[in-house]
């Protein structure tokens, strides 16, 4: 009925959080995927189950995630749902339905083409959509 | 590798949040499941995809969810993962590994036998485990 692609969780440092979650979930440490995303000023670690836990560590204090960490502390950041290609259609549908989107065009994220819905339009939760592969 | 059973999100009122998320996710309103859980002082609405969005509205201001809403406002509340039966084994394993659990025995939740791990042991995130069916 819907596909939650991933959940973004902001952390101060990836390694201790990954170590903790591998023990919490019996997740094999060698299956954790790490990505550097310099354009977003973050390093990412991903644990994959029926959805993905995406831990986000800022590498730049002026990045969106860096500012979030400074202001709000570590913790839950956003949900990302899958949307059928082309993701422009979902963006247009939501705009037409009165949802506040953060950009008028999708942009290239680390995992594909994405756009964001403002938390004020999604029950207080920052919400991302990523184009299904 | 792991199964995220559901995500708990605290809301002031279920109906406007459900209406919003049905539009956001193109979810059929007649498929939303509602449960009253008087023992927990909450009403619950569930939207089912690859994981479940569980919206929690307090019916008792003195319930855990009622106090959370008063103190923190609406928003993300907890993650719940599946654990193989009997769930006591997961509880014992985590305790032996130094995780802080909120009770020494599982209890009967709305969706089965559950226990909680303190946020201080799970990277700041309240974490529940439910026994797999």
Provide a brief overview of the structure.
Two copies of one chain form a homodimer. Chain A is of the alpha+beta class and 133 residues long.
What are the defining features of this structure?
alpha+beta; 2,3-Dihydroxybiphenyl 1,2-Dioxygenase, domain 1; globular; homodimer; 8-stranded mixed sheet; 133 residues
CATH topology of chain A: 2,3-Dihydroxybiphenyl 1,2-Dioxygenase, domain 1
Find the CATH superfamily of chain A. Answer: 2,3-Dihydroxybiphenyl 1,2-Dioxygenase, domain 1
Structural class of the helix and strand makeup of chain A?
Answer: alpha+beta
- The number of helical runs of chain A is 3
Give the SSE order of chain A as H and E letters.
EHEEEHEHEEE
Helix content of chain A: 10-25%
In spatial order, strands of the major sheet of chain A run 2-3-4-1-5-8-7-6
- N- and C-termini, Cα separation of chain A: 17 Å
CATH architecture of chain A: Roll
Structural account:
Two copies of one chain form a homodimer. Chain A is of the alpha+beta class and 133 residues long. The first copy, chain A, has one domain (4-131): 2,3-Dihydroxybiphenyl 1,2-Dioxygenase, domain 1. Chain A is built from three helices and eight strands, in the order βαβββαβαβββ. Chain A has helices spanning 14-25, 64-72, 87-96; strands at residues 4-10, 33-37, 42-48, 52-58, 75-83, 107-109, 112-117, 127-131. Chain A has an eight-stranded mixed sheet. The first copy, chain A, starts with a strand and ends with a strand. Chain A binds chain B through residues 1-4, 7, 9, 11, 17, 20-21, 23-28, 31, 47-51, 53, 73-76, 79, 81, 94, 97, 99, 117, 121-125, 127, and chain B through 1-4, 7, 9, 11, 17, 20-21, 23-28, 31, 47-51, 53, 73-76, 79, 81, 94, 97, 99, 117, 121-125, 127.
